[in-house]
Amino acid sequence: MRALFGGRAKHDYLSDALTLLNGWTREGEQIRRTLVIDDTQHAALTERVKVVADALHLRPEISRRADHTQIRVGHSNSPLSEGEVLLAARIEDAYRAVAEPDEGRPT
Fold first, then answer.
1. pLDDT at 20
2. pTM, full prediction
3. Other CB atoms closer than 10 Å to residue 58's CB: what's the count?
4. Which residue did the predictor score with more confidence, 26 or 39?
5. pLDDT of 54 above 60
6. Residue 7 region by backbone torsions, left for phi larger than 0, else alpha for psi between -120 and 50, else beta
7. d(C-alpha 65, C-alpha 75), whole Å
8. Running DSSP on this structure, what letter comes out for residue 20?
9. Which residues, in sequence order, are bridge partners of residue 105?
10. Cβ(58)–Cβ(84) under 8 Å?
11. Which residues contact 2 (CB under 8 A, 6 or more apart)?
């Protein structure tokens, strides 16, 4: 099972996974996402991302500029890992939770 993630297969797997992450763009060995959210949503997103990132032992870069939040995952000096792609997917989950907090709740 480990061989699935080695060499060329790993690259293909990560490329396929990245195509499922709408809004994320690849820049070399990093992936980036810009979200238009307010300050309260940014704070909530940052807290949720911190919990997941700590569990995965990863450190995304999260910055706030004007009315948007920018997130970078990965390092410029090492290939993108499965964990970093997983973190991006979890960030998407957290973004949906803070941007659409009333969806799925009973009224």
1. 86
2. 0.80
3. 17
4. 39
5. yes
6. left
7. 21
8. T
9. none
10. yes
11. none
